[in-house]
Design brief:
InterPro entries: DUF2512. The protein is mainly α and about 120 residues long. It has four helices and no strands.
Length: about 120
């Protein structure tokens, strides 16, 4: 049950960030943002929160989550949307990953204490 609550918190936070960055600045539809958030949440939770965080600590897990978010958002946005090459998805991915990375610091504290 604790993992379900943690996943919902993480999914909600990532979705909020991606709705702001991808939805508003890139004009990506809400269903696609929700799909990108779902894949990103699953991968980040398994890799960053369950594997890296317990072994290496908050700082390394946050850096890993930043990298995973950046490349994940870039890749998933390229796969699931029809954006042309003139849109700078790299900058949007970096901005979203930076915000998600800042959020992850606090989420990792929550994970270490309660999950």
């Amino acid at each position: 049950m604790k993992h379900i609550v943690a996943l919902l918190i993480k999914y909600t936070a990532i979705t909020a960030v991606l709705l702001m960055v991808l939805g508003i600045f890139q004009g990506i539809s809400i269903p696609r943002v929700l799909l990108i958030s779902l894949f990103l949440t699953g991968a980040a939770y398994l890799i960053g929160d369950l594997f890296i965080l317990p072994k290496y600590g908050n700082m390394i897990a946050t850096m890993a989550d930043f990298g995973l978010s950046f490349f994940g958002i870039w890749l998933l946005t390229s796969l699931f949307t029809n954006l042309d090459a003139t849109r700078n998805i790299g900058l949007s991915s970096f901005l979203a990953a930076l915000i998600i990375g800042g959020m992850e610091i606090f989420f990792h504290i929550y994970m270490k204490r309660l999950v």
